[in-house]
Design a protein that fits this description.
single chain, alpha/beta, six-stranded mixed β-sheet, about 15% strand
């Protein structure tokens, strides 16, 4: 009797096992039918082959780019210490990617001369060019010429407003945000929320400086006791700029704030320091150059805002390399705003060897 029970138990176990295996096979077929997935080894091989072709296809954009890329940077005002940061960034990007890199530019701000230099560079056998663009209209034809020759062009530091550029991409500060950050800090911490100020741009109708001034004016809206008296074009010659600042203050003796928009605002610090107005008239400048930092250190001005020119130079060349060697389209990169005051000026003074 016990033996019969054991035999029946074994038979029952075998039947259950067969039923389970059959159920799994049916379930697999149902799943495959619903999802469209086939377990056929030939189909799996086909998918693997397609995946490999997709990965291999990503190299197609770099075909013919085995040669060393030849890139140029055409800047403005190369006589300024500020320009050295562009070159340093470009040099480092070129070294990182084994690029044949040439840095050039006009010694001052001369738009026709820079356009001519840019046009000559187009004929120089370069694969790509990074350029600072003061006047979009002036560069328009030359950029079209570069495009017709399949020369990649990217702008940096200065070139119109976001989304309105003729170049492939951009590396620079958001000028409106830069002006706003400067104005916000200056009105709050230097002018203590009250008083009158003068805007002192080097070129009053230059697009990039207009954006900065618009940012300052936007910040001023938050301070009802702050008043803009006038805007005075101080020019791009420091000696003449000093005289223009002096004349503006003489005509408006009740002002207690002077705000520059560019590195020629060094004349603001010079005027405040030389006339004994430190602590009476507050000053704000753009670009931490040695001359401007000197007046920040002594207290003639209270804030300097920077735009990370090293990163502008680096990203300009880096993006050209990514585009030409890897096929990644350049972007509009905001390099941010540096707010430099007496509290954090140490590294800047050390870099320039200012004691």
């Amino acid at each position: 009797m016990k033996r019969s029970i054991k035999i029946m138990s074994c038979i029952f176990i075998v039947i259950v096992g067969v039923f389970i295996l059959s159920s799994c096979k049916v379930a697999e077929e149902i799943i495959n039918q619903d999802s469209g997935v086939k377990s056929d080894s030939a189909e799996v091989s086909k998918v693997e082959d397609e995946s490999e072709s997709i990965v291999a296809g990503s190299d197609d954009i770099t075909q013919g780019m085995d040669k060393k890329l030849k890139l140029a940077m055409v800047a403005h005002n190369t006589s300024s210490p500020f320009s050295a940061f562009f070159k340093a960034g470009g040099d480092d990007a070129a070294a990182a990617h084994n690029i044949d890199f040439t840095y050039m530019g006009t010694p001052d701000i001369n738009i026709p001369e820079q356009v001519s230099l840019f046009e000559n560079t187009i004929q120089g056998g370069f694969d790509g060019i990074a350029v600072t663009i003061f006047d979009q209209k002036a560069f328009e034809k030359a950029i079209e010429d570069a495009n017709s020759k399949s020369i990649a062009v990217i702008s940096f530091n200065i070139d119109g407003d976001w989304g309105s550029r003729a170049t492939l991409g951009y590396a620079g500060a958001d000028e409106f945000k830069l002006g706003y950050a400067m104005g916000k800090w200056f009105f709050e911490n230097a002018m203590k929320g009250q008083g009158k100020y003068i805007l002192c741009p080097a070129i009053a109708d230059l697009g990039v400086l207009v954006y900065r001034m618009d940012g300052v004016k936007e910040a001023a809206k938050e301070y009802p006791d702050i008043e803009l008296v006038t805007t005075v074009e101080i020019g791009t010659d420091l000696s003449k700029a000093y005289a223009n600042v002096e004349n503006a203050v003489t005509a408006n003796p009740d002002v207690n704030g002077l705000i520059g928009t560019d590195n020629f605002s060094e004349s603001i610090g010079q005027y405040i320091s030389k006339t004994g107005n430190t602590g009476k008239i507050m000053g704000a400048c753009v670009d931490p150059t040695p001359g401007i930092l000197k007046y920040l250190k002594e207290g003639a001005i209270q804030i300097v805002v920077g735009q990370n020119p090293y990163l502008q130079g680096y990203y300009a060349i880096d993006q050209l390399w990514l585009y030409l060697a890897k096929g990644y389209h350049p972007l509009e990169i905001d390099t941010g705003v540096e707010v430099v005051t007496q509290e954090n000026m140490g590294p800047y003074l050390e870099y320039f060897g200012i004691k």
